Amino acid sequence: MPFVSQHPILLLVLTALATLALASAPLAGQPARAAADPPPISIVAIGDSITYEGNATTTGWLAIYASHLGKETGRMPQIHDYGIPGATAGEILDALRTHDDLRSALSHADLVTYQTGINDFFRARTSYVAGSCGGADNQDCLRSMVQQFDANWDALVSEIARIAPHAAKRTMNIYYSTIRYDTDHGDAGTLNGYVTQINQHIAANPGAPLVDAHEIYNGPGGDQDPAAKGYLLADAVHPDWLGHLVIANFLDAMGYAEFGGPQRSNGAATPVTSLRTAPPSAGHAGWASRTWLIAVLGGLALLTASAIAALAFARRRRRTAT
Questions:
Q1: Which of 16, 30, 102, 319 is paired with 120 by a 20 to 30 Å CA distance?
Q2: What is the dihedral of CA 85, 86, 87, 88, to 10 degrees?
Q3: DSSP assignment letter at 278
Q4: What is the CA radius of gyration of the chain?
C-alpha cells in the first residue's frame, strides 16, 4: 500500500476505523448485544381531572408512576391519557361506551388505571351548601348522587374488565378536599358521610388493587385536612406536586409483578424522594445498546470526514509540488 504509507494522516484514520470495527464485535464467549428494545408497556388512564395530565401544573401521579414502572421493568411506558376534567362517573362511562379510540386503546392495554367520583360528590355538595339539594333535610340530591354513582361505578368496572380482560389494573377511591371549609361552616358532618358511602361502594367492588386516597389525604379517621398536609393546589381540589407524589408512591408500593418487575412483600409505600419522570436508562439493555451504537456511528462519521479531508489535502500538495 505505497500510497497509504506515504500519507501518515490517512494511515492513522484507517487504523482508527479498524480499531472501532474490532471494538464493535462481541468478544468470544460474550453474549451479543440486544438487537431491539423490549416491547413498551401501554398504559390507558381513565378518570377525571385527577388523572388528566394536561390539568396538572406539575408532574402528575400518572407520569411519576409510569416512570417508576419503566425503571422497575426496563420497558418504555406509553401513556394514553383519557382523563376528562370535570366528568362524573356517568360521563366517563358514556365516553367509554361511545369513544372508539378509547375502546381500541383499552383493548390493547397492558395496564389500565381508573378513578372517578369526586365530581359526582362536588356537584351534589354545591347544591347542598346552597340549600337547594331537596327534601326536608336538604339531602335528596346527595342520596340520589350516591345511588347513581354506585350503578355507574359498577358498570364502569364491568366494561373495563370486558374490554381489557388481560390487562393489569389499578384504581383509587376519592378524598374529601374541602373538609376544613365544610367543618368551619358546619357541613362536614353530613357531607363526610356521603364521601364514606362512595368509598365503601368502591371498596366493595374495586375491580383492581385499590389505592386508599381517602386515608392518604384525610387520615384513618377521615377528618384530616389534605391542604394542611401540603397535598392540594390553591383551588382546594386538585393535588399539587406533593399530592401527586404520594399517590404515585402508594401505587409503586403495589409492585410490578404482572410485568416481570418486583412484588412488594409488605405492601407498604416506600419513600419517594424525587420526581423520576425521565425514561429510565440504567439496566435497560435496549436503550444502552442504542446509545452505544449512536456513539460508534458518530465516531465513524467523524473519522470518514477526516479521511476525506486528508485526501483532499494530499492532492493539493501534489498539485502544488508539480
A1: 102
A2: 140
A3: S
A4: 29
Q: Please say whether the beta carbons of 132 and 139 come within 8 A.
A: no
Q: Residue 280: which residues within 8 A CB-CB, separation 6 or more?
A: 67, 70, 71, 74, 287
Residues 276 and 68: beta-carbon distance below 8 Å: yes
Task: Report the distance separating Cα 315 and Cα 322, nearest Å.
Answer: 11
Length of the chain as a residue count: 322
Q: What is the C-alpha separation between 100 and 112, in angstroms, rounded?
A: 16
DSSP line for 189-237: HHHHHHHHHHHHHHHHS-SS-EE-HHHHHHTTTT---TTTTT-B-TTSS
Residue 150 Cα distances to 65, 90, 144, 185, angstroms: 28, 10, 10, 28
Provide the whole-model pTM. 0.73
Phi, psi at 172, each rounded to 5°: -150, 160
